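Team,

Forwarding the record for the chain on the shared tracking sheet. I've put the sequence and predicted structure together so nobody has to dig through attachments.
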Amino acid sequence: MGEFTLRQLEYFVAVLDHGSLTKAASESSISQAAASMAIAQLEKSLGLDLLIRTRAKRVEPTPAGVELGVRARRILREAAELQGGSPRLA
């Protein structure tokens, strides 16, 4: 397994939430090309296809994408808690 970033996970979750790379990119204040590249790099680093691109410019998660979505949300939530000085670490 290769390396991936929290930012890539954030963009992936945004794509899942919006059902579209274009909408996710807009909401994340990045270009559609940057969002697409981040997702492609994430897929490459994990060695998995995470999204199915439809003709209507929508995306749907593959089974691996659904599983990663659940795990990514948990990872991002825990990372946010760490940044916020979670009392469990005190």
